[in-house]
Amino acid sequence: MEAHPYCTEKDVTERLEEYGTRLMAWYPLGHGDKKLINEDVFVKLAEKYGKTPAQIVLRWHTQKGFIVIPGSSDERHIKDNIDIFDFELTDGEMEEIAVADTDDPEEAYSAVKACLLRLSEKNISKKRTPLDPTA
After folding, report:
1. Domain assignment present for 112
2. Is 86 exposed, middle or buried (0-12, 13-18, 19+ CB in 10 A)?
3. Banded model confidence at residue 17, pLDDT cuts 50, 70, 90
4. pLDDT, tens only, 96-133
5. Rounded to whole angstroms, how far apart are CA atoms 86 and 88?
6. CATH number, domain at 55?
7. pTM for this entry
8. Rounded CA gap, 81 and 15, in Å?
9. Which helix (H) or strand (E) holds 67?
């Protein structure tokens, strides 16, 4: 399921816990939503721990007990994505992040829709053809 700090799927995770099952978080960084990554809480914690805001979000996922498999083709991002196990967010920091959860799927997905629109506009502006190997 899609899960990130804007959309934690509380009801689903509670139900899964009854069966000893964990949620696998798709789009753990909110489809690359810049608003999510640049939330003050993630920027502040990134500075505190010497990490990136994305690493803070991924660490939050692991501490929530989510199975998280972020995708990237950028070697630097791949290395950063695994470099989240040398620090731990405090209970207070986890609570601070919890405030970001809108608990409103429509609001959470509006940011995702805006991000997808930007991506599609980028792809359209590149005028790729079906035979283009970079497509």
Report:
1. yes
2. exposed
3. confident
4. 998 877 655 555 455 555 545 555 665 554 554 455 45
5. 7
6. 3.20.20.100
7. 0.72
8. 28
9. strand 67-68
